[in-house]
Amino acid sequence: MTKRKNVLLFLPTKVIPTFPTDRHTDRKTKMCKSCKCSQEDHCLSSDLEDDRKIGRLLMDSKYSTLTARVKGGDGIRIYKRNRMIMTNPIATGKDPTFDTITYEWAPPGVTQKLGLRYMELIPKEKQPVTGTEGAYYRRRQLSRQLPIYDQDPSRCRGLLENELNVMEEFVKQYKSEALGVGEVALPGQGGLPKEEGKQQEKPEGAETAAPTTNGSLSDPSKEYVCELCKGVAPADSPVVYSDRAGYSKQWHPACFVCTKCSEPLVDLIYFWKDGAPWCGRHYCESLRPRCSGCDEIIFSEDFQRVEDLAWHRKHFVCEGCEQQLGGRAYIITKGQLLCPTCSKSKRS
């Protein structure tokens, strides 16, 4: 009998159909012209575009090691996204087949065993397995939590020169003071050099105390508690660390979420503020207003504000007929800015 060899096949990532951006999306508002839903629901960027975006975000920061230089790219860097492929045999009589599962993202710097444990602690519908709703959810979150126009001035529309300078300083500052990437490790082992971290999984039955970040041995009787839910973190179960929070704090994988929207932080990318992790979107708009018309951060001091909402002056227009509403009557209903005529027609 001929012996079969196990072969791993690296297949192209399944592409989820999206609508053409230019034809179906209003560039000014970044909303679908037909149904008024957000851009991330219809016009997701490609994997390559996402990797370029995250590469740009992490470059010029202390997390640039998670990026790689693009050959001939004049300094452009791309995200070295870690993928994980699991192959499990399926018994089918005399001719076994193999079930291959590809995670489109996995925490970097950990063994496959620890990476798989991490995935098992995330809700199944949010696990980024190729071709599933979880993978689609991750891509939507990349668009929602980390808008390209929050970091790249060239993707903003109509920035004046003084606004450009303010934005560049804004981005430089958050990369230096707030941007972070979570680290996955066993309790008590966060912040270890990678050489030691790879030794964190000992053979079953081995008795070793987990070293702490200051080089001393941790107390084996110490109880590790999640910062969010205050539940105990089992010694054999991975947790997430934030270097900006300090390695005395840890989170269950499902608890490492934005303090504002409570959504899991995509690819563990966070912004640290007021003693908690934020997603990029809510961190930026906690410091400066975001235009309800174009979704971009406002870097001008001259803008329109109504209660908790803000608009660039030029975007303070009726969402129905697009007439300027500065100095005119307007109605805000269900988050929509409308002139009285359009508001009346929607009610009828």
Largest sheet: 3 strands, antiparallel
Shape: globular
Roughly what is the average pLDDT, rounded to an integer?
82
* Helix/sheet category: alpha+beta
The SSE string, one letter per element, is HEEHHEEEEHHHEEHEEEHEEEEH
Report on the structure:
The protein has a three-stranded antiparallel sheet with strand order 7-10-11. It is globular. It contains nine helices and 15 strands. With 348 residues, it is α+β, with helices and mostly antiparallel strands. Strand 1 (25-26) and strand 2 (31-32) form a beta hairpin. Residues 1-29 and 195-218 have low confidence and may be disordered.
Compose a concise summary of this entry.
With 348 residues, the chain is α+β, with helices and mostly antiparallel strands. It has helices spanning 21-24, 39-42, 47-58, 112-120, 133-145, 161-177, 194-197, 280-287, 340-347; strands spanning 25-26, 31-32, 67-69, 77-79, 84-90, 97-103, 179-181, 183-185, 239-241, 269-273, 276-278, 303-306, 309-312, 331-333, 336-338. The model is unreliable at 1-29 and 195-218 (pLDDT under 50).
What labels would you give this structure?
single chain; 348 residues; alpha+beta; three-stranded antiparallel β-sheet; two-stranded antiparallel sheet; 9 helices; 15 strands; 23% helix; globular; disordered N terminus
